[in-house]
Amino acid sequence: MKLPYFLLDVFTRDRLSGNPLAVVLKADELSSTRMQAIAAEFNLSETVFVLAPKVERNTATLRIFSPVNEMPFAGHPTVGAAVLLGLQNRLSAVRLELGVGNVTAVMEKMDKRTGEAKFALPRLPERTGELTDIAAVAARLGLSESDIGCDGMMPAQYSAGNAFYLVPLADAKALERIKLERRGWTDTFSGERNSVYVFAPTPKERGNDYAARMFHIAHGSGEDAATGSAAAALIGLLAEHGGYGDGHHGLKVRQGREMGRPSEIGVQFNIEGGVLKHAGIGGPAVILAEGIIDLGE
């Protein structure tokens, strides 16, 4: 069995920045066990497998795996796969079937190896947990309690398909000072998912509104360069407590700078009558490499 695959850098237009992604095509004959093994072999934050759609009018079914488990939704695999399939098939609308629901991504070609995709979230973000021990949160991040919180927002857990503990900081300089204390991590950030998305406003930076870092200690890989599903969850906190009124809001979130993998995620949301009614994310992706997986079968 030989399967074509592509490597892309997502949430960036520049190769060797953003968040790397492996996309494996024609994966219909692979078992879940094989997919998991291939994802572990690539050892990227996510690998996405492209299968034939269950509904004919759709473009593809996607299955998304981290090195250790399957995920119902993740932002950068959705964006990367949409750009790749859009470029390959000359599509401006890519209809994808995900574990969390169906997504229609609008894809704009930039050149033969680069595109930009954006899509409405199949599930609006919602608050899924509390995080009230500010001293413990600060200790896990190597910060002081005065660093935690900004613009009326305080830590809490939100999910738009994948749950994240969202930790607002007073300013972006605090992001640079983070020194993780792994002892006690799962006690402070408890539950099945203890991924932590730390963010801060960037009023003095041109071209973006927030800066963020994402840590997922349980997966062993530490920090992620660009996390679309975390930015999707962030929309929930911003809509409820960020001071955004009724209307349409489009924001930019930078991530990955501290890792040397700068990235930019676009988030959009509509508030009507004080209630979040629509949310979406998007960004660019560029094809870096391609090859063949030879399973010798």
3D architecture notes:
It is a single chain. The protein is α+β, with helices and mostly antiparallel strands and 297 residues long. The chain is built from six helices and 17 strands. The longest helix has 15 residues, at 75-89. An eight-stranded mixed β-barrel has the order 1-2-3-4-6-7-8-17. It is globular. It has helices at residues 32-42, 75-89, 134-141, 172-176, 185-188, 228-241, and strands at 2-10, 19-24, 47-51, 60-65, 70-71, 93-98, 101-111, 114-120, 126-130, 156-159, 163-168, 196-201, 210-216, 222-224, 247-255, 263-272, 275-294. The termini are close together. It folds into two domains: 2-120 and 284-294, Diaminopimelate Epimerase, Chain A, domain 1, CATH 3.10.310.10; 126-282, Diaminopimelate Epimerase, Chain A, domain 1 (Roll).
Spans of at least 5 consecutive residues whose pLDDT stays below 50 are none
Q: Averaged pLDDT, please? A: 96
Largest beta sheet: strand ordering: 1-2-3-4-6-7-8-17
| Radius of gyration from the alpha-carbon trace, in angstroms | 19 Å
Order of helical and strand elements: EEHEEEHEEEEHEEHHEEEHEEE
Helical content class:
10-25%
How many DSSP-defined strands?
17
The structural class is alpha+beta
CATH superfamily of the largest domain: Diaminopimelate Epimerase, Chain A, domain 1
* Spatial shape: globular
Strand percent estimate: 35-45%
User: What summary fits the major beta sheet?
Assistant: 8 strands, mixed, barrel
Instruction: Please give the domain count.
Output: 2
- Note the total helix count: 6
The fold-level CATH name of the largest domain is Diaminopimelate Epimerase, Chain A, domain 1
CATH first level of the largest domain: which class? Alpha Beta
- Terminal Cα span: 5 Å
CATH architecture of the largest domain: Roll
